Amino acid sequence: MPDNEVAVYWDFENIHASLCDLVHGQGWYRRNAREKQENLVKINVIVEFITGLGRINIHKAYANWTNYHCYNKELQQHAMDLVQLFHRGPHSKNGADIRMAIDVIEDISLNPHINVVVIIGGDSDYISIAQKVRQKGKSIIGIGVRETTNQYWMKACNEFKYYSSLLVKTSATADLEQLGYEEEDLDFDEARELLRKAVSLLSSDSGEKFALKGAIKPMMMRLDPSFDESNYGVSSFNKFLQKCSDMVRVQPGEFDHHVFLVEAGRDKERKAAAAAAAASPGRPYESVLKKQQVRLPHSVSLREATDAAWNVFKESGALPSFDAFRARLQTALSAARSKSNPLAEADPGKIKQLMYKSFAFSFRMENGQRGIALSPAVDSADTLFERVLFMLTRRILDNMEEDEVDTAALAELFYEDRSRIDEVNRILQQYQNH
Predict the structure, then answer these.
(1) Do 162 and 145 touch, CB atoms closer than 8 A?
(2) Is this prediction's pTM over 0.70?
């Protein structure tokens, strides 16, 4: 076990609410926060990961515990210090982030032997905590739900783990399926590019043509604290390198394995970068979305995609799995396409992900079998289309670097028509009022 002294802080309501919205649809937790809650957070999985970091000295969890009786056994099993925070007013937050910030700074000041701080939650409010922890020479590790975690909070950490990646490491496949996660949810090309950068930097620094294998993953995590090979369906970094065998070559060295960039792999990466640079100037925001692991279909328009998805569920009702949905969507979209303009193989999966990230699905149990359907809030093809556009708008505006919005570019991206400025302005107004 690493010789670390660890302090752990759970914004328990934050992670529980995120999982509730994934399972039941966006906004479900806000509407049902005062009701008794179901057990969704796999506490043992998270604690198992933290235990691997070192000795847990401080273990605090913050929530309004009135409606969380379903977690009693696990909470007591891990001897957590449960901090009760009542909601102030009918629509207010419980203030866990403020109380947590005070406790973290006080705890690491009074207990200088603490050298690792772990925060479970996804709010941007934790960024200031991360800054103070790092100023004091401590490491900070974040854990959060992929769909609801703020990207700047992730970047502020020394290391960040998606909740889903911890489930992968413990082979909790049933829990992953319940949340709708699949291997292609993250863009593997992003991971390949991260690997290329890490190997290039390490080999440049050493003056050698190779990088030591043991140094590559730490460098990748410095470049992107959220990197974890488990996100890509593999259980070890060795298997991740094997998955990238067309790009890197691994051979034994004197003290560690040497990892070389393969010329063919580098050529492929250069071509991919050139293709990205040559992409339509009318779609500059596509690169912003790609960094958020949001991939757009290219053989169909967004409107065509959402209309076809709506019709699939209208004709079939609930479906047994996402595989069944993608298969039917592929059939529906392929039927109307010509040989000169075929459906891209990956597009049904991309459409599914757009809908998933828009909280457009609901999960059902019928006759003991789990199935998927459209969320009750999605009552028409127009509603589904608008829901996807709002999600894309939020992802773009929350993460773009420039301050001014190019409405014509958004119109091109959403409608394939740069003149539809009025519709884009309406979406932007909804975003500002949200």
Answers:
(1) yes
(2) no
